[in-house]
Task: inverse folding
């Protein structure tokens, strides 16, 4: 039960940060999203994001900041195996499933549906 | 003809012999639905893109205005039109369909009154006997170009506005029956440094104030001359700022005759945040709603100050502020 509460609190807190970036600092939705990705990447690089996921579960792995963490995680893992070129080849290693799924499902949806407005 | 610094007074009072307004599904649920000639149930208008749908709106508005005027399209000497899409494609493509001499305008959402001012000038100066002035906007096409595609689901702050899906057209001639254009005040570009595309009302308000002030200054007129004064598409936020600024400058327009087209086109319960915007806003409200009230004798003298934000998607991405303009036209019965 406790795990659910922390997931809710941490996930919600990340969204609050996003909302503040939009409302107070007047960032556009796209800038807000990339800021959270970069923040996740930096935290991941410093080794702070994985502990957050362990603590809050989906509360930390579902928000977009987790995508930044995964980018860095993939790059670092590949770097250790193959050296500096691994940073380039590994960056989409962990996230490729998410990106490919987004492209493929969007393509399939576009075959059957039209945007409403 | 030129009076003061920036106002044209039309001694021959060109006549608006016919007007038309075409709208989309959201407008059909709005407060002025009965003043539209056609209301479409489908955002796509049976086309395969929103841009083509906007062109169709404009074509229909022109066709209806020509039909109502009882003329043929060959009688139109000049077609004046502007819209929001890049390179004003809705206007130019409609001009291709109409095949009449054409001058494209860009005044963003002020295009309605920019077109009407120039139309009156052309008729007054005998450069044309019959002018068709029109403009259009389409909610989904504008969102896609200026903000985010709707399916992206980006949040909008309470200051943002809803682009009208609609087109309006007017036929202006030297003689005939109908409301007459008596003067037009051409606005200056005013930029107060606002760069938030979700707060266009506030960005455009100072331009509206500048033009309205210039109008009364040039003509030595008092606001009580008019029984209805409307700004184009400032919405609640921008209209409030305009009222405040005008008061500060010592111009008191009674609130019961002063409104904004973007505040009256939709119903209170429609989720439009600060109000409506887009070229189609002031065009459909003026050519549909207000012209009907004038023809029925309910309104005698009106002043419409259509406002426009002259930025491009590129300029605001590069963090440029939003230059704005307003053109005011007085119409009398």
Result:
């Amino acid at each position: 039960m406790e795990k659910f509460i922390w997931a809710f609190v941490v996930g919600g807190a990340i969204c609050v940060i996003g909302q503040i970036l939009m409302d107070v600092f007047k960032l556009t939705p796209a800038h807000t999203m990339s800021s959270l990705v970069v923040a996740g990447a930096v935290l991941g690089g410093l080794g702070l994001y994985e502990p957050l996921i362990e603590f809050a579960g989906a509360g930390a792995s579902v928000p977009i900041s987790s995508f930044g963490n995964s980018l860095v995680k993939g790059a670092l893992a590949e770097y250790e195996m193959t050296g500096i070129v691994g940073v380039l080849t590994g960056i989409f290693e962990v996230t490729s499933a998410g990106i490919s799924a987004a492209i493929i499902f969007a393509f399939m949806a576009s075959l059957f549906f039209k945007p409403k407005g | 003809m030129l009076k003061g610094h920036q106002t044209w007074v039309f001694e021959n009072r060109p006549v608006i012999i016919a007007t038309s307004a075409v709208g989309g599904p959201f407008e059909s649920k709005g407060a002025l639905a009965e003043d539209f000639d056609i209301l479409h149930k489908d955002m796509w208008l049976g086309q395969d893109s929103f841009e083509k749908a906007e062109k169709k709106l404009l074509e229909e508005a022109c066709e209806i205005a020509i039909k109502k005027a009882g003329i043929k399209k060959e009688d139109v000497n000049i077609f004046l039109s502007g819209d929001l899409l890049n390179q004003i494609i809705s206007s130019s493509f409609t001009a291709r369909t109409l095949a009449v001499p054409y001058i494209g305008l860009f005044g963003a959402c002020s295009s309605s009154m920019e077109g009407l001012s120039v139309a009156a000038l052309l008729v007054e100066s005998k450069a044309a006997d019959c002018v068709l002035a029109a403009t259009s906007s389409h909610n989904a096409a504008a969102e896609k170009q200026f903000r985010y595609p709707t399916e992206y689901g980006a949040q909008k702050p309470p200051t943002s506005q809803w682009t009208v899906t609609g087109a309006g057209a007017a036929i202006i001639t030297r003689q005939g029956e109908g409301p007459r254009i008596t003067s037009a005040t051409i606005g200056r570009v005013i930029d107060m440094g606002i760069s938030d595309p979700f707060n266009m009302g506030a960005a455009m308000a100072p331009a509206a104030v500048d033009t309205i002030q210039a109008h009364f200054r040039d003509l030595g007129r008092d606001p009580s001359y008019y029984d209805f004064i409307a700004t184009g598409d400032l919405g609640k936020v921008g209209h409030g700022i305009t009222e405040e600024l005008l008061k500060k400058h010592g111009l008191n327009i009674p609130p019961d005759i002063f409104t904004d087209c973007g505040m009256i086109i939709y119903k209170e319960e429609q989720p439009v945040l600060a109000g409506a915007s887009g070229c189609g806003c002031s065009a459909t409200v003026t050519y549909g709603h207000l012209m009907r009230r004038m023809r029925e004798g309910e309104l005698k003298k009106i002043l419409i100050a259509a406002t426009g934000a002259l930025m491009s998607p590129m300029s605001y991405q590069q963090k440029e502020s939003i230059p704005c303009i307003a053109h005011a036209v007085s119409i009398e019965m």
In short: Chain A has one domain: 2-112.
